[in-house]
Amino acid sequence: MVKNVPRSVDTTTLEHGAYVYVGLCHGQAVLTELARFHALSLAMKRQQPELFSSNVSSVITEAMFVPENEEWYSEYYRSAADNALNMVNYVSSCSLLTAQK
Question: What is the arithmetic mean of pLDDT over 64-84?
Answer without folding.
Answer: 91
